[in-house]
Amino acid sequence: MTASVDADLRGTEGWVSAPGALAAIGRLAAPLTAFFAMQSATNLACTAFLGRLGVATLAGVGAASTIYGVVIALMFGADAAVQAIVSRRSGAGRKDLLGQVLTDALAITLPLGAAVAMGLWLAAPTLVPALVSDRAAAAIGIAWLRAAAPSVLLLGLTVPINACWIGQGRPAITFAVSAILAPLQVAATYALAFGAGPVPALGGPGAGLAITLACAAGACLQLALVARPGAIPGFLRTRPRLGGAGAVIGLAWPISLQQALLQVGFIVAYLIVARLGVATIAATNVLITLATVPAQLAVGIGVASATLVGQTLGRGDIASARHWGWRAVAVGLICSAPFTLAALLATRPLLGLFLHDPTALSIAVWPVRIVGLSIAAQTTVQVLSFSLRGAGATRLSAGIAFVSQWLAQLPLSWWVAVTLGFGLVGLACVQCLVVVAEAAVTVLVWAGARWTVHRTLSKPVTGA
Question: How far is CA 68 from CA 127, 263, 360, in A?
């Protein structure tokens, strides 16, 4: 994989070098988008199972999932940092330093994962009822969150390893692991939720336990892969270094903070939605699940762009790095178009897979259509945001997202949905308008020069 990508990188300096550029993006993005598509399919299948258990289960698990999203967001910064550093080292021909990068990252993520997992388990009875007032839904959400909490520690191990594979230009490994784990999680969710043979029916909390079991299997598989001779040069042969850990933290904290605040924003949105009733909460959970599918496709292309940008900058070529961002956006827009059409033209059949309550279904129809109109803008934002991360400009990427969410989307959402009384339709309209504005700003930033003078660009690659 790496050799093929390196070959495609050569001779693609110009914007019009389409064959080589598409080949390079395709080699990286195809397994990544397949990886994220598999995650989306897993989420959709599990949500469909939970939909059979009623509105209370959907609402409780939806609230708990939002809290869970906040804590695992802390790992996203390490993911971005490891990928940026590894891709830069690979582009500079210093693959002998990759094991040290991974060691430094794990010295941060494993203790963090353990602490967060314990805190999540202890705080679940306080956090979930704050989001959903219905007692039945809250009880289900608490049990789900406690069952899923140990998975955060396991993600502290697997997230940096996945980022290392991707930064090297070997995303097929990430996809292969997911291809094994996805059906395992779906089967475990069904068995634990509804019961199978000696396995008792646990309902909604069974889905949380299925996440932990899948993450445990993933951790074992990833450890087996990295233990192979030469898989990640230098891994387990050195101790963590303070300077290397500091470099990971320096790149990671803006993304971790931004992603955590993003998830906190979802919690605030849930508080807004909670004022509109349990049926609206259930409809929102399904809306988020559906919107995740094109978003994760865009993330796959964005992660590929981040690797290509980082490797190109490792060679010292800023102009070509900029071109990779534009090419990736073009690919993303083409790939996301079918999802827009599906949201606009097949709304009710899509919702009917998850919502069996007529009230909840009717609430969700127009919000899905409105969000569908924003898919192209959201794709642009996702791809260029990851491109900025690949360039090491994590603060710039995080800053744009923070302003978009906290200074625009959330205040406007409260005003439109609650004060003016437009409900979930108003929330969807605000989200659509804000993401279009964010896309315009991100395009202007990528076209400018600020990210090209990021301090890491001028540092020679001499160590981990």
Answer: 10, 9, 24
Alpha-carbon distance 128 to 14, whole Å? Answer: 52
Q: Report pLDDT digits (tens) over 185-216.
A: 999 999 999 988 888 889 989 999 999 999 99
According to DSSP, the residues that pair with 196 across neighbouring strands are 199
Which value, in Å, is the radius of gyration of the alpha carbons in the chain? 21
Contact 282, 60 (CB under 8 A): no
Place of tokens 């803008």: 377
Tell whether the model's pLDDT for residue 17 goes beyond 60. Answer: no
Amino acid identity of 181?
A: L
pLDDT at 422 over 90: no
Alpha carbons 344 and 294: distance in angstroms, whole number: 14
Shortest CA distance to 325 belongs to which of 401, 382, 251, 254?
Answer: 382
- The reported pLDDT for the residue numbered 140 is 94
Separation between Cα atoms, residue 84 and residue 333, nearest integer Å: 24
- Find the Cα–Cα–Cα–Cα dihedral 107, 111, 112, 116, rounded to 10°: 160
Residues 449 and 437: their CA atoms lie apart, in Å, by 20
> 458: buried, middle or exposed (CB in 10 Å: 19+, 13-18, 0-12)?
exposed
Tokens coding 107: 């010295």
Look at the block and give the residue holding tokens 């079991």: 213
Burial class (CB in 10 A: 0-12, 13-18, 19+), 462: exposed
State the Cα–Cα distance between residues 287 and 309, nearest whole angstrom. Answer: 33
Label residue 355 exposed, middle or buried (CB < 10 Å: 0-12, 13-18, 19+).
Answer: buried
Mean pLDDT over residues 265-285, rounded?
75
User: Hunting for tokens 């300077």 — which residue is that?
Assistant: 243
With 50 as the cut, is the pLDDT of residue 457 above it?
no
Helical spans, DSSP H, in 168-203: 171-194
| 124 pLDDT tier (thresholds 50, 70, 90) | very high
Report the candidate in 333, 349, 334 with the shortest Cα–Cα distance to residue 290.
Answer: 349
Mean predicted lDDT score pLDDT of the chain:
84
